[in-house]
Amino acid sequence: MKIGNIELSGTPLFLAPMEDVTYKSFRWMCKKYGADVMYTEFVSSEALVRNVEKTRQKMKLYDFDRPVAIQIYGHNTDSMIRAAQVAEEAGPDFIDINFGCPMKKIVRHGAGSALLKELPKMQEMAAGIVNAVQLPVTAKTRLGWSENDKPIMEAAERLQDAGIAALAIHGRTREQLYTGTANWDLIGKVKNNPKITMPIIGNGDINSAEKAKQFLTQTGVDALMIGRGAIGRPWLFKEVKHYLETGELLPFPTVAEVVDVLREQIKLNLEWKDNERFGILMLRRHFAKYFPGLPNFRELKIQLLRAETSSEIYDILNTIVEIYGNHQLNYNNVSLR
Question: For the CA atoms of 87, 90, 96, 101, what is the dihedral angle to 10 degrees?
Fold first, then answer.
């Protein structure tokens, strides 16, 4: 598939943009294990226009990232256009527009998936951004607002008409948030609509190599996007890629192998952040996902989530290896929530 002049071979695997998740250290881990395309955390157009330093820091890119997109969100078309221009100056390979975030703090301001209720405005905003920058512009959205309001087909056609170079679709409505199951049938209908020629990227519920293959076969999408399934399991990209290429499943890692991965992620995060405590706090969401299904693990997990220094973390990890080191983890029934 192509995004502008960016050529991607095979079935590319995209790391979904996630707030407080897809920062530098996590992107590095996912890239190491086979993710083909990166996104920053999504950034506020209004904050970019106001030159908020914390928001600008989210746009800092690295050589390992590429190809990489900066994703922007907002409700005001003029601010979004200006934000896209500011983002372009940061040097990404393409710009992505967030038309899918379901969170109340985003939607109540008319941004993210709220724009699924205003398709003409969505199209106008997308066209304005496409015309204002030199880079390719893509978008990410959902099926619609609710079970009875799923305008994804019209949205896709409008976005294509606006010049959007590729569209990622999360197979849920805004009303669902992250509950229930993703509807890949509808993603497939968009992909197979003869009016749609731009690449379609499927997203939602990919937490195993088998599901990735199932969704790809079911829909024929051009690429797959993995989000929550990779939190605490960045090697999922490697598992998916290997299965798509060979039909063989890789064995799940042992606890000792997982601890080695986690140590690397911690080291990278602490090198990136000057404040040790803040660097550790950022990782707690990942810690919570790293050791699914271990018996009698609750107390160690609580200690891991409460630790505030790297020395505490490493001591706990050493204990985990002593107790569970050769235990092979099982991800077959791991929930994404």
Answer: -70
Cite the active site residues.
101
**Taking Cα atoms as reference points, which of 14, 3, 29 lies closest to residue 286?**
29
Say if residue 253 is exposed, middle or buried (CB neighbours under 10 Å; 0-12, 13-18, 19+): middle
- The answer, yes or no, to whether the previous bond of 194 is cis (omega within 30 of 0) is no
Q: Do the beta carbons of residue 186 and residue 219 sit within 8 Å?
A: no
Coil, strand or helix at 186:
helix
Q: What is the pLDDT of residues 278-327, one digit of tens each?
A: 889 989 989 989 999 899 999 999 999 999 999 999 999 999 999 999 99
CA torsion sign for 95, 97, 103, 108 is: positive
Is the Cβ–Cβ distance between 212 and 243 less than 8 Å?
yes
Q: 298: alpha, beta or left, given left = phi > 0 and alpha = psi -120 to 50?
A: alpha
Structure tokens at 207: 């937490």
- pLDDT tens for each residue of 249-278: 999 999 999 999 999 999 999 988 878 888
Sorted by where each begins, the domain ranges of the chain are 2-246, 255-324
CA–CA separation, 108 and 275 (whole Å)? 33
Alpha-carbon 1 to chain mean position: 19
* pLDDT attached to residue 334: 76
Orientation of helix 152-161 relative to helix 119-132, angle to 10°: 30
* Alpha-carbon gap, residue 41 to 22, rounded angstroms: 5
Q: Residue count of the chain, please give it.
A: 337
The class that CATH gives domain 2-246 is: alpha beta
142, β-bridge pairs:
170
In angstroms, the first-to-last Cα distance of the chain is: 31
